[in-house]
């Protein structure tokens, strides 16, 4: 296909040509960034979490008398265990993605203070006896807490527990002790210190960070005897039993603790709620992308149709002197291909610029390079699709048009 | 003349319905999307207390120790300690001042038909109500005497009053919170400052509290507090904070009516910091901030990033739609070269043609504006179905309604400029000859 005549003709119709290029460029720039944002959110929503999410129900109990916790908690656990279908129960201080975070900064030197710079902020999950099984934590190295660990650990109203053992996630182990085994290592916050006895697969914090996976999994676990800090009850069951178990558990805890408020939900609900904003943002981005592509396509159809109408006579002449239908068709398609090509080149530069701007002003990562050619190809296809209709109409112009005056 | 152009415009627009529809739709989509996001942005960056917020200030001081201190770079603490809060409150250097924190209390309804439930509470001091110009439906707020005496009184919101007492005047009734009985002395009127500016630890755009009680009472009864705590030195955290602990966990607001009062209060804060440093309580040099409500919201970047991003995205989308409309109008106007040539030959000036074509773009813009308005209403309805805390606020107000049409007509006139100019360049003789 000879492209010189196409350029010659485009030079004569400079304004419409520039408009198509501009429109493609803008669409490409917005599309790249929007799709990147969608991808990021979809990734965040699906962040893995090594507990038995599909079988968990969580009941929070507030308003109990802290002084009676030592007897209340075992009684509540026994009551929950009695519900049909419950496989394991345990009490914890909080659960992943609940938004209820207890964090502290630890150092690796024996004189580390909580306020030291360079400390690592970690979430503290307090587990009552049995909560590790109820949550379905996956042990990777070392051991879980034993009965003595639970019995010896207390907290009262202090910020840190009185114990010397802890379990960390794989992410924490890799971050703090690169390459070395985490077992036997110590977290310090003067005057407390905690020796790592086990490493579990990555569990999310109550607040997941959308910026770094490392921060999202910065969690530690501590044993705790029956104290009021353990205000969440986790129940494990078959997935289909959860709705009923939440209902019965709320009722049962309400009966046993008349002055307290028991509120339950399945872990799937907690996760859905946590990511609800993100999900709706992703859908809205999808909507914008689809509508924008449609508008762009219609714009191309409109302009090319006008173009074809304007050049009916020339097309007729070409046909009369021997051009086939296919020649006419490929003329318009090549023309569109060139215009879209120019558009996406400008668009990719623009998309990169927007990404850099957004990175400076918003929580945004650098866009991986493959988003650029990806959306370029998408727009190329869109352009070809949009031009097909008008091009077919052009190809249908009979040669006899050449003999008529315009 | 204008009426004639309008008539011409309608005539021409009717002639090519598909193209007209395409243009109107493109503008409507662009306007609809941008108006939806702009309205959300407008509502979220709104003034929580119009007319009053400029006089409300949030004093910040820096009581921390020297650990991690870098001279000149750090912001003062975002909240105050119990000791500083009480000192500033008792100094009474402002027109009004209130110290506060949030909490959650278990409401035990007297009626057996209602289960116990949790309600968010505000523990504050007497000036809270006059300072924030809080309207009362029944009763009143409390005074300094109740603060000093830790009296068991509460003020409740009208929603809670509806829930517990069916909307009747409940002042004088008793309300059981946890194990303690309180006397209701006031019911708030319709009061929903958004964002929840006075304590941004609570959801920024959530509803305000159901229960208000004297701060001293909350401490006396021993309620836990909700919100962020920052401790240093050997301060311990926990839900119940020792009053002497080096922890900041309270918000302190003042009302200052004139610039001279603001200046005086700022120097008072500096003096106070110096005095505390001399006493050995503070270790850092005086570092104070005095922001009013809007500055405080700005500083805390209350408007969600997602909302700003959506606005940018929608404006980008509008731009795509506009370029698209420019192209379509160009096609439309150039196609009428013959007609325009005839008008030129009959004596119409280029100006007149230009005006005629712009009227036509204006009509497209107006139609697009109506379509955009419908789409924006639909978009806002969709936003209201979202789970975000600000969702319920997404409503179109008259300003934004007017803005929709201005933006739409303005945008389409802008889009019409280039095509109209281009179409006016026709040489009448050439056009007539080719016919």
What is the topological layout?
The complex is a heterodimer of chains A (406) and B (435).
Chain A: H1 4-12, H2 14-45, E1 56-62, H3 69-81, E2 86-92, E3 103-106, E4 120-127, H4 131-135, E5 139-142, H5 147-152, E6 165-169, H6 170-176, E7 186-189, E8 192-200, H7 213-216, E9 219-223, E10 232-237, H8 242-256, E11 261-266, H9 267-310, H10 312-320, H11 325-361, H12 371-395
Helix pairs in contact in A: 2-9, 2-11, 2-12, 9-12, 11-12
Chain B: H1 2-15, H2 17-44, E1 56-60, H3 82-91, E2 96-108, E3 117-124, H4 128-131, E4 136-139, H5 144-149, E5 153-156, H6 158-165, E6 174-177, E7 180-188, E8 211-214, H7 215-221, E9 230-231, E10 247-248, E11 251-255, H8 259-279, E12 289-292, H9 293-299, H10 305-335, H11 337-345, H12 350-384, H13 398-424, H14 428-433
Parallel strand pairs in B: 3-8, 5-7
Antiparallel strand pairs in B: 1-11, 1-12, 2-3, 2-6, 2-11, 4-7, 5-8, 6-7, 9-10
Helix pairs in contact in B: 1-12, 2-10, 2-12, 2-13, 10-13, 12-13
Describe this entry's structure for a reader.
The complex is a heterodimer of chains A (406) and B (435). Chain A has twelve helices and eleven strands. The mean pLDDT of chain A is 88. Helix content of chain A is 51%, strand content 16%. Chain A has two domains: 4-46 and 275-403, no CATH class; 64-259, no CATH class. In chain A, helix 2 packs across helix 12. Chain A is an alpha+beta fold and 406 residues long. In chain A, strand 7 and strand 8 (192-200) form a beta hairpin. In chain A, the strands form two sheets. In chain A, strands 3, 4, 5, 6, 7, 8 and 9 form a seven-stranded mixed sheet that branches. The longest helix of chain A has 44 residues, at 267-310. Chain B has 435 residues and is α+β, with helices and mostly antiparallel strands. Chain B has two domains: 2-45 and 303-433, no CATH class; 53-299, no CATH class. Helices cover 49% and strands 15% of the residues of chain B. Chain B has 14 helices and twelve strands. The chains are: A alpha+beta (406), B alpha+beta (435).
